[in-house]
Specification:
The protein has about 100 residues and is mostly helical. About 90% of the residues lie in helices and about 0% in strands. The protein is built from 2 helices and no strands. It has helices at about 1-40, 45-104. α1 (about 1-40) packs antiparallel against α2 (about 45-104).
Length: about 100
């Protein structure tokens, strides 16, 4: 039960972080474009340029984050399976020792 809850929380956290990786560069680009146009430093075309660059950077950042998360989750699953295999092997060796002791 605890593992399932932890995995669910980890998945929800990964989704929120992926969304923030995608949205935050575009939002910063829009903020910078607004500051530049409100002060009269550039024309409104800068909105399109900075938001497009923000979306591209955000998409690359999101893909990188998802790859890292997938690798982490894969490593966690492998570690869990190794622990379960070690526990199973440990319980089998303790059973065989008990059987030897009862045979003697």
């Amino acid at each position: 039960m605890k593992k399932r809850l932890f995995n669910t929380i980890l998945s929800v956290n990964s989704v929120f972080q992926a969304i923030s990786c995608l949205i935050s560069p575009a939002a910063f680009g829009a903020l910078i474009a607004w500051l530049l146009t409100s002060n009269g430093l550039t024309r409104p075309w800068i909105y399109a340029v900075l938001i497009t660059l923000g979306v591209l950077v955000g998409f690359i950042s999101m893909i990188g984050f998802l790859v890292k998360t997938a690798n982490y989750e894969k490593a966690m699953r492998e570690a869990q399976s190794e622990e379960e295999a070690a526990e199973t092997a440990g319980s089998q060796t303790s059973r065989s020792k008990k059987e030897k002791d009862t045979d003697d």
